[in-house]
Structures are given as structure tokens and as C-alpha cells.
Fold each of these.
Amino acid sequence: MKRSAGLLSRLLLVVCVLASPTLFAQALDTQIQQLFPKATRIEPKQDNPPVHSVYQLDELLGYAFESTDYSNLQGFSGKPIRLLIGMDTEGVLVGVTVLEHHEPVFLHGLGEQSLFDFVEQYRNTSIGKPIVVGGQSAAGASDSVTRIDGVSKATVSVVILNETVLLSALGVARKLLEGFASGSLATAKTDLYEPLDWTQLLESGYLQHWTISRDEVEQALGPLDRYLEIKAGSDAPFSDLYFAYLNAPSIGRNLLGEAGFAKLNEELKPNEQAVLVLSSGMYHHVPGDFVPATAPSRLVLMQNDHAIELHDMNFNNGAVMEMLDIPLDGFEANVFRIKAHNAFNPAEPAGLRLNVNLRRNPLVESNTHFMRDFQLDRDLFDIEKAQIAAEPTPIWLRMWQERWWQTGLLGLSLLVLTCVFIWQHRISSHSRGFHLFRAGFLLFTLAFVGLYAQGQLSVVNIFTMFLALGKDFDIRVFLMDPVIFVLWSFTFVSLFIWGRGVFCGWLCPFGALQEMLGWVAKRLRIRQWKVSDRLHLRLQWLKYLILIGLVPVAFYSLTLAERLAEVEPFKTSITLFFVRSWPFVLYAVILLGLGLFVHKFYCRYVCPLGAGLAMLGRFHLFSWLKRIDACGQPCQHCKNHCEIGAIKRDGGIDYDECIQCLECIVILNNDDQCVATISARKKAEKAGRHPGSELIATDAMEPTPASSAGLVGGTGIHVQHQQG
């Protein structure tokens, strides 16, 4: 019922937009009424800030506002996700409604219900805490952030939606709600510096010292001896902490030194701030398994009753103590970043909170927290009235930071693949080792690139790129998914070096899945259907006809083109792993089933992505698949062994169809496989028994003209008779 009501209200809204502004306003009021069921009066949208005030009689219930008035973030489709957001007077979201979106994964994949279920999680959620999509709550940090479940296969879209909600809601709250307004801003006076030693910093209050005793913790959690993290017999304080605000030169420069303070200011982004925290004792400010460059679970900065996340800077590669000239031993230190969008005001009262989470056993935990309030000297700062809040870290950059290891592993694999292609003749001379490497790489492509990292390229990627180049190009849209961006960039460059085969033969997850099915067919001894050369040449044109049909549709409507691009089974098999309605699953299974009888049937005859890459790959610089005189004249061994059908009868390579599996190079570079080499050896052995003639084998022969460009390594065999 909820789904039907949501779809009906959205349809009504679209109809009203097309009909008249008055009807549109009435439809929007209906949507707002659903967010505020008790509302008796909805005010027209005011200008500054653009919100609808919602009342029950004369009592203000809250505000309703559209996300596009506050955020211009583009979704994965390249267009903003338009939301209607309701928020009460305490900063609690009463609901979020999707008014309009163009996200392909919901429109043509998972279905919109998964999107509606996701936004339902915002109901009754306070924006007083950071709202984070996905991940697991760290120990002791459950009350410092609010985590909502993501949507598998749609990570980018829901992260963008979450950022849109936060930017919009905080924009309204800081202007209209008490306790959210930034108040006066304070920036450290850069020209104010006084040399101070450790003791003087403590006496002036610039450096804060906070000791939490064992008795204090036991009053809250009971005897500490029963907790696993506490060493029996220890007489150290529970936690001994020092912390300092580093942006002020009289503090940061004295603690870090001239070079360290300069380095800190280089690493901080505009309007960002930093604090130093040191600790020793039974319970440090970060756990022993703390990951550098992440947010600590035990430490939170508080101001105006709102939690402000701290982010480890991994300053000096984590060796902060080496930079400090201080009289302390046994302490560990971190420098934490306060991001600009948190609007932390160092001249106003604040507090440092230590979350304590101790385990009695692996199943039972006890939690509490301790707070230390502090106030810095206002004379250290220039204080001004609040300006427009700085924008947070770009979402595309956060996506790269969050997926750094996936991107790094993909980049390493692409480097390895590049080396294989550069030294292909040397590597392919080891036949068994090469085949094992190729099998392992294809498994990596399917399991990691495709199923895990969701790096399956699509013909839609080509359409999106060319459409973006023509109008409103914004590279940030493509940077939203780092895995797709890296893979597409490498594929695009490799097209003009080696042609389409690098992607189609090595980096396409669906292609890898088809090849593995070919292995299964061989193991089961499934009889292969022989496609004649004439029929093969005709069927090749089918994928080009499909591509030609999709191109004009894409320029007319990218949404319609995305629907028609379902001719690709990639989304069903790789992105959604067959969790989809039965017609799509049946279609994908049929194509894969055909691949059991005709090697890589889909790649050879249906794939519009392969057709598009082949057209771009026509301009490749090198033809690195070496040929010799015997190839095709008369030897047909490579042609018969080429399962993709990319070797012509005359021995030449059809690079538009070749998937660069390098099997022909393996044959050529192995003396026990190349027919020409075997024949030359037999003739040489025979000539040794007949002194009337001498057979000379030389490697000085030039390759055929069609394959002479860009050769590396290899041996051309030329056989000639010379009279004795």
C-alpha cells in the first residue's frame, strides 16, 4: 500500500507540473501533508530560506523544503535527485519523499521500492549527529553518529542522496533552528605568537591536561579487574590525556616546531582545523587496532550539544611523538582534522568526550563516557559574524577515499596486464605458466572487478561520455565511481594502443564468465557447434546493427536508451547476480547457455559494447600479434585453434574481432606447438642424413606487412634449400 501510495502521489505531482503551477502547488501540499499528518496549515514557500512553514493551528510543527533549493549535487545519472524533506523544530527529520530521480540502478535494475525503503530510514532521525550510510558502528561510537543501511549495488546513488539530505537539512537548521546556527566564527590570529615551553602551555590553558582515575570508571562500570582490556595489578591511571588546538601559532608552533607547524598548515584544507591528542594509561584515546586516516571511535568533540567527528590526519605518517619536544614517555599521539562543514567555533565553549567500551567477555560489553569541558582564550582569535558555511569534502573525493584499496588493487592489476602485453612474446614462451596466469586473471576479473567492485562497463558508459562532452560536461559525475572511472580510462587508452581486445579478452567480467563456461563445456565434452566462416562474417554485423540502433535513441532520450541497453545481460548477471524478475534472468541464462555450444556467443555476435569498442579500436597504433610466412600459407593451426574466429584464412588477424587472448602467440613461441617450427626441425634432421642438400633455418625473415608495426621479440622461421 505504501508503495502504491508513493507511486500515485508522484504521478499526480508530474501531471500537476504539466498542467499548471496552481495544481503543482496543491500536489506539493499533499506531499507535505503526508510528511506532517497533524498539519492544519501549510504556508506558501518563503524566499529566505526557501521553506514551507507547517502549523497545527498556531503551533509550528516544522518545515518542508525541496533539496534542489539547497544542493546541486548530481546523481550517478548526471542529474540531481529531487527530494521533499520534512523537519521538525528540534532538527528531527519527519520524513523524506523522492519527487524525481533518474538513477539507472533503481529505474532499470533493483526497482524503485528499494529506493523508497532507503529514504524511509530518515524518518525520526536527528540531524544533530552525522548520518552515515553503511558500515558497522565502532565500539563505543554508537551514540556519536547515526548509521543507516545502504543499498547493495547502489552505493554511489544512496551516498549522493544522503549527502543531499544532510546539505539541505543543515542549511535550513543553521538559519532557522536554535542550537544549529553557527554564531560568530573565529579564526586563529596568524601574526600572534609567543614562545612557550611545555609548562607554560599548561599554565596558560593552551594545553589541556585531563586525567581519568580508576575510581571514576569503577563508579560507572564496577570493578575493572573483570574486564578483558584491563591488565591485573596495574596502578596506572585509567586514562591520562593531553589535548591542544593547533591552528593558533602560540600553541601549534610551540608544540610542533617551525617545520611541523608549516607542514600542518600545508595539509589542512581551507577552513579546516586540527587538534593534538596524547594519552597513556590503561585506556588510550585510540584502540590498539586503530586504522590511520579514519575517525576514532573513542574520541568525539562536542559543541552546542552536537557531536563533531574527528578524522585522523596520519600526520608525519603517524609518528607524531617524534615531532614533539615534550617531557613525556609512554604516550601515543595523533593529530586530528576538524572538517570545515562541521562549523566548529574554537572561541566558544566546547568539550572533549572519551567513549569507554569494555568487554567482560566476547559477548557482554559495558559502556559509558566522560566529558572534559574547555574554553580557549578568545584573544587568540579574530571573531567575525558567521559567513556561509563552507562546503564539505566533495562527495566524489570521499568515494575515492573510501574505496582506495579497491582502486589501488585494480590499478595494480592493470599494471600487471600492461607488462604482460609489452613482454607478451617472452611470457607466452612458457605455455603452461601463461595459461595458469590467464585463468587466474579472468577469475580475478569476474570475482573482484565484476561481482565485488561492480566494475562492469556497459554501452551506456559510452553514450553518457559522448553526451556529456556535448553539453554540461562535469568530470565529477564520472569520478563518483572510482572503479568504473579507472577501468574506463584504461580501456579508452588501450583502445588506441592495442585495440578492443584488452578489455574484451581480459577485463570484461561477463566475458570472463563466458570463457569459464567454455572451460566447463570442454571438461564435460559438450560438442561445439561449428559456425562456418561465411555465417560467422554475417553474424558479426548483428552487434553493429544493435549499436547503430541504440545511438540515435541515446541522443533522443538517455533513459530510453538505458532501457533498450538491457540487450546487455551485464546488469542481470554481474551487477544484480541474477536477483531480478524472471524475463531478464531467462534472457541472460539463454545467452550463457548458447556459450556452452558456441564459444563466447554473446561477445562475438550480440555485444553492442564490443562493437563500440571495436569502432574506436580501429585507430590502434600497434599490431603486436606477430605473424610469419608460414601462417596461412599453408599453416592453418592458429586459425583452427582461435575459438573467437579472429584469424583469417591467409593468417592475418582481424583486430576488430580479436580479444587478444594471445593464444596464437603462445603457439608461435613454443617449438612443440608451432607447425612451421616443427616442420623446419624435421627437415633439418632429415637433411642431416642426406649430404646432397643442406637445410638452413634463419630468424632473419621479415614478418608479413599486415603485422609489421610494433613488433617486440619472437622468431620468424624461413626455410630455404641451398645446393652443396
Amino acid sequence: METRDAELDYYIIYGPEPAQILATYTQLTGRMPLAPKWALGYHQCRWSYESEDVVRELAREFRDRAIPCDVIHLDIDYMRGYRVFTWSPKRFPDPAKLIADLKAAGFKVVTIVDPGVKYEPEADYEIFDRGVENDYFVRTADGKLFHGYVWPDKAVFPDFMRPDVRDWWGELHKSLTDMGVAGIWNDMNEPAIAERPFGDGGEHIWFPLDAPQGPDDDRTTHAETHNLYGLMMAKACAEGLQKVRSGDRSFVLTRSGFAGVQRYSSVWMGDNQSLWDHLEMSLPMLCNMGLSGVAFVGCDIGGFAGNATAELFARWMQVGMLYPLMRGHSAMSTAQHEPWVFGDRTEQICREYINLRYQLLPYIYTLFWEAAIAGTPILRPLLYHFPRDRTTYQLYDQVLLGPSLMAAPVYRPGVEHRAVYLPEGTWYDWWTGECYHGPTHILAHAPLERMPLYARGGGIIAIAPVRQFVGEEPLESLKMRIWPGTGEWTLYEDDGHSFEHEKGVWATTNYKVYFEGEKVIVEIAAREGQFLIYEREVTVEVVGVGEQRFTDDATVLRLTF
């Protein structure tokens, strides 16, 4: 390891298992807040959906085709000449009405915000004028206003190391949230800067390393703070949204961060390409992020740059169903990459796996809760649960979604079979119910319509009815899918959107499964917490054995199969 500055601090964390190390690490760096439940649904994005009419048509397509979707992202072209915190009067003449109409159809809107503020003196651009007036922008060591080139051409950059600048920047988001925007996507915040206008072949540059940054009582230089720029922008955004959207949880996404970024933002892995290698690489990248304390992570489904084939897109959507952040995204120079553009067969595969994502949301939301309270990763490498099994140490192409569901995706063209390693214990094929005993290798049949998926013996997974968006209808029925074995799992629930859970308005229900002779016993504990759940029908399915239904009234129950 090396540093450009004089100091480098080390922290040594010991633990017998990854879970304990990660718990200690996130005690040090912080844990993510509980995301709004809608942010766990499917996100659709492109650079760019360039006008209000295009966005409306996109939303209609999702609903007409019965493909669930919760979030539409707007990239840089919603702005007036790439000026941050503005709207294009021609492309988006009435953003408040557009967002209200989308909300009525079950969509949330997330807008992009970059750190570069267009250098525009005497043009009545309030963001620039106020920033200069209050000396909020980064200056060089000799006191000159630093500038570089990004989307709005010549631009200046806030010094997010200063608390007063972060407060100012956070409050600026009110111009977006007043229109109904529910989340912010922070991009270009490494920061990405060129030394001449984009398209002119300029070199990538940084702030000068001797540029002063930070408040007067804690002044340092960019050499020390460079890696913190994206983190501090995300902090400014998250804290600002908490003020201007008081009462509602917001979604924040960032391209850049540092240790502890999970306290403020989810993260995606940047501009990937429509390549099979990039699909394959996404799994170890996201697992490593989870092992670094950043649980809410994703990669652009289908690839950002280049044109995906129908086969690649179908396989990527299957893998994307597992990503904590499930977002499809593509660049303007590419062909369209929405789920329906690749033909009927691919569309049906996308629909099936997005449907499965929505069915699994009670399980996934509980994993998010575990990440929020204990720093636990959502997407996990096998070594996380099997640290004494050396076979798992370099096994990067199989992943666990929580403790009970394992996937072995296909990431090569033309492949319909693949080797799968099943660690110690009993495993069940998700699709067929076939039982296997590990540790062992098997050859899985994986036609294009099927991603190999396995449930762990003793696994307990809550499954909801398919919805077109989160909160479309009350959760009046729930299925607990349980695989024979010995296991325990706690279902977490709250209203999914407010901060009332921080005041104790949540509910947990503990489930246990075990053998008693030849019988399978399922024990359901009394519900805990203050969140009110109206009576609903719960179906307990012990896979391969049978199912029973009961009215959930929050009391203790013991079922025998």
C-alpha cells in the first residue's frame, strides 16, 4: 500500500469468521440506513430518456406489458444545458405534473446530480452566483477559482469537505424534491474532470493536490482529501434529503465513495459494457463490496456501453434479480435495452425474473434490515457462510442471497449446463424440489429460461404475491416457503417508507423448522414490535411435504407436517 501524503493509518480487525470481522468493521465505519422498500424494486434507466413524452411512454410500456417496475431514473438531459438543479423547459416543461402522474401509476423518479456547477457569471444562474458569493467552490493554492470541464463545459466544484458547503448543497435538492423527486443519483463525483471541453480529446485531471480544502479550523489539502470527495458529496445529498423530504426515506446512489459511504448512499459499479466478461465480473465485485460494509450495491443490467444480445440480456436479468440494487441502464450511443426490445422470449424471461424479485421482497427487505442493524451483506460469497470449506475460497461465480438462497448463474453464451458446487448440508433445486447432499459437485441443466437456483435445507423464505410496484396493494397474504431441515429465520416488517421504525414501529416474527422423528415441525413465535399488521392469510409450505394455511393473528403457533 502507498499514499501520496505523509500518513497512512492501519486498522487490524481479527475474527474467526467473516461475519464477525464485518460486524466489527461496520461498527467502525458505520452501517447503512434502512432503504425505502420501493428502492428494492426494479429500476429503469438510460442516458437518456430525453423528454417527458419518452418517459411517459416508457412507463406505459411497463404497465401495459405487466413487467413490474418501481423507479425511473432521469440522466443529465433532464437539465437545462446540464446546469445542476434545473429542468429543461423544452424537454420537461412541467416536471411536477409528470412526476405526479408517474406517482399515480406507481413510479418513483430519481434524478442525476453532478458536482460540476456551470461557470456562468452574469447569467443569473443562482447556483453559481451564490456559490461564488459565499466562496463555496474549490480554489487553487494561490486563491484562484479552480475550474475544469464536464458536461456543462467550464465548471467549478463545491468544497464538500466544508460543513457549510454540504448544508448549502443539501438544501439545493429542495428544487427537485418540491417537484416530487424521491431519490438522487450522484455521478461524476470522483470527481471526473477534463482539462478541455468534452469531445475535444482532453486529458483527465484532478484538483491540484495543494488546493486547500475543508473549514478554517481543519484546513488540509486535496492530497489528503481526494478519496473523500464522492463520500462527502453523498453525505451532503443524504443529509439534505432528510431535511427537505422529512418523514420519507429517500434513495441515494453514488458512483464514488470511501469507507463508510454506506451510511449515506447505495453504490453502483460505474460504466460497464455489454460483455459476457462484465456479467461474470459483476458477482465478485458486488460480493467484495458487501464484504467491505457496502451492502446496497448493483451493476448496470445489460451493460451500459455497447449492445447486448438477447441471450446476454436475458442471462443478465437473471443475475440482476439477485443484485441488492436491481437497475437496468444503457448509454445513448447504444440500442434500446428495455426488457421488451429483444423479442417475446427475452421479454418473458425478464418478466419472470423481475416477478421473482418482487415475490422475494419480504425476504430481501429483511436482509436489508439485517444490513442496517448488523452490517451484514445482502449478496454473499459462499465463504461467508462456509469459512472452513476451502472449496469456497476462490468460488466467485456462485453467490448467496442471504443465508438460504444460492444461485449459480450462467455467464457464457450458448451454455445450457454448468458445474455447481453444493457445500455441506442439504440443498434443494428451487425449480424442481430435487434434493442433494453436500459437499458435492453436480451438473446443472440451465436452458436459457432457467438460472440454477438452490435453497438450503432448513431455509425459510417469505414470498409475497406479484405486484407491479411496491405498495400497489396491501399484503393480505404471505407464503412461507420452508425446506426440510433445521433452521431459524426472523421476518422483519414495517411501513416501508417512513422513519417510524426508528421509534419502534416495526414487527418481527421468528420462524423455526426442525425434525421430530419423521415429522417436520414449524414453530412460529409471537410477533414482536409496535407495527400493526392486520390479519392476513399465511400459507406455510414445507417443500416436498405439504402446506397448511392459517390466519396470522400475531400469536404463537406450532405446525406439524
Amino acid sequence: MAANEIETGGKCPVMHGANTAMGTSSMDWWPNALNLDILHQHDSKTNPLKGFDYREEVRKLDFDALKKDLHALMTDSQDWWPADWGHYGGLFIRMSWHAAGTYRIADGRGGGGTGNQRFAPINSWPDNVSLDKARRLLWPIKKKYGNRISWADLIVLAGTIAYENMGLKTYGFAFGREDIWHPEKDTYWGAEKEWLAPQDERMGDIENAASMENPLAAVQMGLIYVNPEGVNGKPDPMKTAAMVRETFARMAMNDEETVALTAGGHTVGKTHGNGNAQALGPDPEAADVAEQGLGWSNPDQKGLANRVVTSGLEGAWTTHPTKWDMGFFDLLFGYEWELKKSPAGAWQWEPINIREEDKPVDASDPSIRHNPMMTDADMAMKVDPAYNAICRRFMADPAYFDEVFARAWFKLTHRDMGPKTRYIGPDAPTEDLIWQDPVPPGNSNYNIAGLKARIAGSGLTIAEMVSTAWDSARTFRGSDMRGGANGARIRLAPQKDWEGNEPARLRKVLSVLEPLAAEFGASVADTLVLAGNVGIESAARAAGFDVEVPFAPGRGDATDEMTDADSFAPLEPVADGYRNWLKKDYVVSPEELMLDRTQLMGLTACEMTVLVGGMRVLDTNFGGTRHGVFTDRAGALTTDFFVNLTDMASTWKKAGDHYEIRDRKTDALKWTATRMDLVFGSNSILRAYAEVYAQDDNREKFVNDFIGAWVKVMNADRFDLA
């Protein structure tokens, strides 16, 4: 190689794209391999604040000073990004809304609880144009208060303070959202390969809003809810109404809450489309380093608020866009509306023959007035009969509208925080709300040893005790802190009738444990978990280890009145790899469903491995099937699952809907298995874990690791222990 080859453009000493380009990861080479990345999310190696307890630190925050600074920021217009009418309220509300509005009830993922709006893909969604500016405006406040305020809390709080600053009496605010430090790759936002791909790509029938692919809750890739111009960009308020109803239902909102949020969200602020949308610069993830994390540069803005282009629609919804009032209803119902194009070419609705005094003034020049505008979703509030009736109810009682909106805004921005016990700060409301899944305090002062002895002598089998405790706890979702063993909702509708809970077996176990709970003054929730522990301790003794499973009493029992039965439907398991059960065949493989359940429960790949291996030898399979029970000592907490899975004296063959493990020499059938069993031998990472537990010197480690993972699941919803 010539001495000057590098300098003259010859071979580069760095492998081009080795760290960032596609085509270099294992999944690119082997796309059908099981991707365990979903279980590696939020790895501590990416966290710059290792060992830091945000929920403890935020309690030290000067809450009043923070709110005072946010109020001042609302009207502190910056030259580099001027505020509409000198007020940032509309921008901050949109930022908070679009953070919280990614939540969907199907899997509890999304929402504002992690600060994920800072990262791709959400930071670069078409629906989030200019929200990078909102977050950057907050940076001086984040810098000032440092670790005592998370980005997640600050992003949501800014919108709430904006409403207060413009005159709304808010319902309250709770701190306690912890930041993540990299994108949430575990969240599925859709399979489309382009932004704003036609709705048809995620809907089975464009005429049927309910046909939208689950768990998605937005109609197009890159949107929060619906297309503001109409279904697939074609205005039709009645069709849009159906889409609005479906998307809001998928984030746990009823019709009244939907109308309140739509009207209240559009009472303030404006849309931006006074220019050429094609002239915008690339989104934040695609922008040059000189943009320093900002995107969508507005080259024609010229330092004026009225020259900004974001959605492409242009105009305010109300006459006084920086004031909380009834202006949305006054204009929507006070005028007839016609379709027009914005300066950026987007479809929007504008009033016919509007009075000059009802027009909002220009965002930069108060001497000029413009037509207000409405989106197709706004017009849906007028043309849909149910929405129309709710609007008129609000118009007749403005105080009621204020209250419904304030509560709906609180629900929108707190839905993924979990129960009220996780709320921090002086403005956290004390009222119990049914969507918080309230659980009354439980008794912790009872004879635990005596109750355990009675459970042990009750005649219940190890499999019955362990399976029922597991079924009670496995509903926990770390995505929105719902489900879990606390509350013992497994004994209430709808959970008591879920197929995956084996209702007949569940009734039998409850008939034994409920009287014992009453006798000892313990909750049924505690007793179910304690029974599982009794089963594990008995199984460990059978394997030669005398151990005690840690137990924290104090769970409470929820009632039917405390339970919104309909909202629990999405928590119903359709598969459980831990109990080797699949309700039916799905497009997604059984092992991928197992990973999804594992991630929602907050478990690692290693914890999943040890739990599955232990559950198999404890004979907890759904319906008592023998698949994966690689042991002749069922009921003993042994490493037999791993030993026999990795035994090279065997062969593994597909046999119909399951697999057979046969003796390599004699071809005698030894065991049967499912994909959810064999993946622990076929996947290189999972096999590495399985081999650890198959070793002769790790039998005790296996028992201890199994108990540690078990306790983690049983206590996942014990926020009082944190």
C-alpha cells in the first residue's frame, strides 16, 4: 500500500458502516432466528445514573419553584423559536399529549411514563414535527433541576402547567416517571416501511375501524391517533368519527372522554401550515450534526411564529387560542363549515361568513385576523350523533365540561403510571379512580407459619398450588403497571372465567384457600402466593434442598366494585410458555409470544429460562400435558429439564403438532415437547443459559435462582415494597 494511499482517497482504515449500517447484525443475517432483544431492554449498561433512585430523589424537588419556572416559561418567547401569540401553551400541550397519547390498552405499551419521546422513532414521527423544539425549550429547566426531575415527568408536567396558565383548573399531577436511556424496541408500532402509509396496510377493512391490527391504536404509521385530513387523507367526518372512536377506545377512553379531550385539546393553540411543507428539512434522526438533534428546519420561517409549517393545516380552532374557554364549541356549532386547502396544501374545514370579531388574530401580528379552522376529527364531533349530543351537554354546562376534561387529561397523562400508590408530589389527587385498579390495604399481622402449615396439609397438590399462584401473578404488565397478584382479581370476573386460568381447577383451589384465608385473617391474594411458596418449598425438599421462599405479606383483596371488568379483557393471556399453553395458532410463533409475556412481566432471558425449567419439573403444564416434563421425578425442583434437554444421547424430531425426543440408539420415545421447550436448546443464547443449569455443580444455584425469579414475579405489583 502506498504511503499516501489513505490521504489520497484509497482504502479507508475504518470498516464503513460497521457500527451503524443495516446488514451487520445477526438478525439481518438470520431474520427467522428468535430475537431476544426484547428481553435486553433498559440494560443497566446504557444508564448513566446507575444506582440512582429517581423516585426517592424527586421527593426532594422544590415543586413550587419548578411550577413557577414553568409558568414563566409559557410567555418567555425565544427568538430562535418564537411562541404563537407570545405563549408556548399550545406547543407544550401538544408535546405532553403526543407523549401520553402513544399509550394503548392492548399491551399497555407507549405512554408518557418513560420519556421515550426523546428517542427514535417517536421523536421523528410526522405527527411530532416541531415537538423537538418544545423539548429544547424545556432544557434550561431540566438543566437547573437536574436529576430531581426526569424528562418523563417534565414533558407531561409542562402541558398540565400550560393548561393552568391559560385558565383551566386541573385535576392534579403526580410525579414518579423514570427515564429510559435508549429507544423502546419492545414496542411494536406497525409493519409499514414508510411514514403515513395508507390505512389499508394496518386494517383488514378500511370501512371497519375495529379491523385495525392489534395492539396498534393509531390509524397510520407515524400518527398518534387519526389523520387530521380524513381517512387516508380524504375528508369525510362520519368515517373519521368511526376511526376516532376506535383509536380512543384503544387507549381506554369512552365517548364522553373522547369529546372532552378533542374539544379541550383544540381549545388552545393552533396548527401550522403557512408555507411549503416540501421545504422542511429532514427529521431529527436524519438531520445533519450541525442541527444538534433538531429537525424539520423551517427555511422560510424568518423568525416569525406565523411562518411555521408542521402538520400542514393552518390556523387556530378558537377566537382566543391562549385562553381556556368554550370557544371550540362556540365556533364549531355557531357556523357552517366548508372544505378548503391550507397554504401548505392540506385539507381543512373553514367557517362560512364568519364575523370578523370571531376570527383569531395572527400568531405574530395582532393587527391581522384569519379564519379559524377545524380538522376532519373536529367536524366528527358535530356530525356523529353520539358525539354531537355530548357536545351539546357540555355547551349547556361549561363547568361540567371543565371537570370532565380535567379528569380526562389527568387520565390521559397518568394512565400508564399504575396505581395511586406510585404517585408522588403535593398535587397528586387522593381520590380512588377505577381505572387505577384500586386495591385496599391488606393485613400483614397474622400467623404466616400457621397458615402455611394448614395449606401444606390441605390436600392440594404442588402443581395446583404453584399453577394458581402463577396464574394470579402473571397478568402483571410493567408497561402500565397493571395486573399482578395483589387484589386477587383472579377470583373475580372476568379473570375467573379465562380459559388460561383453567376455571375448574381454579374453583377447586379457591374453595380450599378462601376459608383458610378467612380463618387466619389473611387476604386471599396473600394466601394464593403463600400456597405457591409452600408448593415450591415442598418441591425443593424433594430435590434435597431445605429452603424457605421469601414472602412479604400485606396484599389486599379487590372487589367487583373496584374492578372495571371490561378494561381487564386485554390482560387475558392467549399463551403462556411458562405453563406450555397456546390458546390457538397465531401468526406470531409460540416462542415469540413467550418473549412478549416475559418482557411485560419485567423478566430477563435468564430468569425466563430458570422459571420455565422449574415450572416444567413441577408439572404445572396447562391441562396436565406432558410436553416438556423431562423428568421421572415430577414435583421435585430438579435440573432434569435442562439435563435431559441437552443430553446428546437423544434425537429431536417433529411429530405433528409437537416434537418427540427419542433415544439415539434404540429410537425409544423418551419425552415429548413443544417449540416453547426446544427453543431453550436451539437458540444459542438460551442454550448457554440452559447449559449452566444442566451442569452437575449448579443444582443448588438452580433452586436459588428459580426462587429469586419466582419472588420477583409474585412481588412485581408490590409497589409498597419499593
